[in-house]
Design a protein that fits this description.
Helix content is 47%, strand content 12%. By secondary structure, it is of the alpha/beta class. The chain has one domain: Aldolase class I (TIM Barrel), CATH 3.20.20. Strands 1-2-3-4-5-6-7-8 form an 8-stranded parallel barrel, surrounded by 6 helices. Strand 7, helix 8 and strand 8 form a beta-alpha-beta unit. Helix 1 packs across helix 2, helix 9 runs antiparallel to helix 10 and helix 10 runs antiparallel to helix 12. The longest helix has 18 residues. The chain starts with 11 loop residues before the first strand and ends in an 11-residue tail after the last helix. 52% of the residues are buried. The model has no long low-confidence stretch (mean pLDDT 96). One of its GO terms (molecular function) is 4-hydroxy-tetrahydrodipicolinate synthase activity.
Length: 304
């Protein structure tokens, strides 16, 4: 458990998949087993549950509560557990946030409202209302490829004035905006797009919220440590070794490929829920080749 205010959620977190049974129901025992594996064997400081990779939009409120409670029971005493609570409805997001607090979550991930394309004034009001609703620290999730609307620098500067808005998961990859936000605020940045982990860390991000962390957690920790120590040559070496992993996992939706890899490794995952579809045999063959090129062989999780 981290207590460093500069890294309020630790350094290496994975956006955890939600394991399902073959009939599509939630596999709570599998969620606990996977969470323990990630924390105890994959060097994670924390987990983000019920995010994009956790297929939260296809789960009912009751299912989300059960998943969060199961993961907290499994690893909440030794890892930061951040609950994804964001929706495109402010009132529903507040309800989710309060429920996550009651269940014992350590923090909240709040995504930019999607589909309804609010203006910046709407984003400011939305995020502030959610942060006001609980006593938990908030990580904003800035992901315009899914939400369309980015959180602009001036909005981030104003949001940073809120005592509970402490971090940003950045999947925007606007490095100019990132640099200005870091220069003008104390927000802790976490890279939310694995392919740009190194440049974002080099600019001042404090950690990652990763999808490939399901498979290469120790190497991500090595990457973060190398940047922190100023050893950019080592950081480039680690990052280059991970490029085939990044590419392989994101040839299609990351949850599809990661669940396929976890199934091959004998770890809980199960199928994806519609409208997603499971990896085809051809995609699985390509994934095996990509991961092998990155030092991950399906059959055994290990780091080279």
């Amino acid at each position: 458990m981290t207590t460093d205010p500069a890294r309020p959620f630790g350094r290496v977190l994975t956006a955890m998949v939600t394991p399902f049974a073959e009939d599509g129901s939630i596999d709570l025992a599998g969620a606990q087993e996977l969470a323990a594996h990630l924390v105890d064997r994959q060097a994670h400081d924390g987990l983000v549950v019920l995010g994009t990779t956790g297929e939260a939009p296809t789960q009912s409120d009751g299912e989300q509560s059960a998943v969060l409670e199961a993961v907290l029971d499994a690893v909440g005493d030794r890892a930061v557990v951040v609950a994804g609570v964001g929706t495109n409805d402010t009132a529903h997001t507040i309800e989710n946030a309060r429920r996550a607090e009651r269940l014992g979550a350590h923090g909240l991930l709040v995504v930019t409202p999607y589909y309804n394309k609010p203006p910046q004034a709407g984003l400011l009001r939305h995020f502030t209302a959610v942060a006001d609703a609980t006593d938990l620290p908030v990580m904003l999730y800035d992901i315009p490829p899914r939400s369309v609307v980015p959180i602009e620098v001036e909005t981030l500067v104003r949001l940073a004035e809120h005592p509970r808005i402490v971090a940003v998961k950045d999947a925007k990859s606007d490095f100019g905006a990132l640099a200005w936000t870091l220069a003008r605020t104390d927000l802790a940045y976490y890279c939310g797009e694995d392919m740009v982990n190194l440049p974002m860390l080099a600019l001042g991000a404090v950690g990652v919220v990763s999808v490939v962390g399901h498979l290469v957690g120790p190497r991500l920790a090595e990457l973060v440590a190398a940047v922190e120590s100023g050893d950019l040559a080592k950081a480039r070496e680690v990052n280059e070794s991970l490029l085939p992993v990044y590419t392989g996992v994101f040839r299609t939706q990351g949850v599809i490929t990661v669940k396929a890899a976890l199934r091959e490794l004998g770890l809980p995952a199960g199928p994806v829920r519609p409208p997603l579809v499971d990896a085809t045999p051809e995609q699985l063959d390509q994934l095996r080749a990509d991961l092998a090129a990155g030092g991950v062989h399906l059959g055994e999780v290990h780091s080279r």
